[in-house]
Amino acid sequence: SGGVMDMIQQIIQDAKAMEAEAIRSEEDAQKAYEDFVKETNASIEVKSKEIVNKSEEKATAEGELIETKEAKEAVMLELEQLSNYNAELHQACDFVLKNFDVRQTARDEEVEALKQAKA
Q1: Could you tell me how far CA 53 lies from the centroid of its own chain?
Q2: Could you give the C-alpha distances from 43 to 47, 48, 51, 87, in angstroms and in order?
Q3: How many Cα atoms within 13 Å fall on the side-chain side of residue 62?
Q4: Which pLDDT belongs to residue 100?
Q5: CA-CA 20 to 30 A from 72: which of 40, 55, 101, 116?
Q6: What is the pLDDT of residues 67-116, one digit of tens each?
């Protein structure tokens, strides 16, 4: 009868050991799951912050692009106006140079006429 009781006692001990092992395994699995969730949440938070930062950088870059395009348009307009002004000056100078001899001759004749009138 001692053998049966010993066997039952052994089965009870084995069952307790298996239960303790199962509980430990469950606790380890729960801890691993909790760690995984923490890491995942932290990663999601980091990625979300990166998205916000990248969105801000994109908005800033787009704003700078618009400002740069506007500045370029202003510079191009100014260049066009300067080019037109240059052409006008060129025409005026060409007119003065072309008619210089005629005007000089006319002035000389005027001065000569004034001298003769005075004399």
Answers
A1: 11
A2: 6, 8, 12, 64
A3: 6
A4: 86
A5: 55
A6: 999 999 999 999 999 999 999 999 988 888 888 888 899 999 999 999 89
Q: Find the length of the chain.
A: 119
Say which amino acid occupies 110: E
Burial class (CB in 10 A: 0-12, 13-18, 19+), 104: exposed
CA 70 remoteness from chain centre: 16
Q: How far apart are CA 98 and CA 52, in angstroms?
A: 68
DSSP string, 35-57: HHHHHHHHHHHHHHHHHHHHHHH
Half-sphere exposure of residue 68, counting CA atoms within 13 Å on the CB side?
A: 6
Mean pLDDT of the chain: 94
Which pair of tokens denotes residue 50? 């990166």
Tokens matching residue 86: 């240059």
Residue 56 scores a pLDDT above 60: yes
E-only strand ranges, the chain: none
